[in-house]
Amino acid sequence: MEKKPATEDSETHMLNIRLQEELIKRIKVLCDEKEITVQDFVTDAIIEKIGLVHKERRKKSRL
Q: Which of 36, 31, 32, 43 is nearest to 7 (CA)?
């Protein structure tokens, strides 16, 4: 997994989103099992998704 920017070195902003209650419960359980915060989980998921989108765009023909 790619390294995420250190919180102390980066400016942060609040992001409010709406998710289904069941999904939030699943995320919290997973985070408890992995001993990570929900914030770290969501940050990692966004970083990973951005990387995948970037890779997919690079595969497409440029013509």
A: 43
CA 55 from chain centre, in angstroms, equals 16
For the chain, give every domain's residue range: 18-59
**Span 11-36, pLDDT tens digits:** 999 999 999 999 999 999 999 999 99
Q: Is 12 helix (H, G, I), strand (E, B) or coil?
A: coil
* 25, 38 contact by CB (below 8 A): no
CA 18, chain centre distance (Å): 15
Separation CA 49–CA 55 (nearest Å): 10
**DSSP string covering 15-54, please?**
------HHHHHHHHHHHHHHT--HHHHHHHHHHHHHHHHH
